[in-house]
Amino acid sequence: MIMTPGITTAASGVQDITWNILGQTYVPKQLSENSLSWHATFPPDTFVPPHVHPTQDEFVYMLEGTLDFWLDGKDSRANPGDLARMPQGIPHGIFNKSGQTVKCLFWVSPTRKLFELFKAIHNVPDPVEVVRLAALHEVDFLPPPGT
């Protein structure tokens, strides 16, 4: 899949897709073999548990609100205008502890199997099933602390 030139408007996304991923809303904005980007809305108290992308670099550009990150064993916080960089192979987790809705733009490079993963876990409420499906799509969730 080759990226085509053009504008993806604020109100649109790739193939008019909107995914519900564990309570967050993801709207894919661009898809090619080399990268995938999506607009994400994190309601209060939602999160992405610690995980690793062994084959992708991941980025989050903050638009509205504050997210807490766990990056390679260290806690940090990102505010509007900040860019979080998560190199491949580095464990990371993303948490909305702010009490407010957060909006941000994610992207990964290369795309690999992430688009297919999001299709597979859309509306899947069971975290155990999400973890199982993620492992089939090159995303490895870490066990909870103390296990």
Task: Describe, in plain words, how this protein is organized in 3D.
- There is one protein chain.
- This protein has a 6-stranded antiparallel sheet, with helices on one face. Strands 7-6-9-4-11 form a 5-stranded antiparallel sheet, covered by helices on one side.
- It is built from 2 helices and 11 strands; from the N terminus they run ββββββββββααβ.
- It is mostly beta strands and 147 residues long.
- The chain is globular and about 45 Å long.
- It has a single domain (16-139), classed as Jelly Rolls (Sandwich), CATH 2.60.120.10.
- It has helices spanning 114-121, 127-135, and strands at 19-21, 24-31, 36-42, 47-52, 57-64, 67-71, 74-78, 83-86, 92-95, 102-109, 140-141.
- The model has no long low-confidence stretch (mean pLDDT 95).
- Helices cover 12% and strands 41% of the residues.
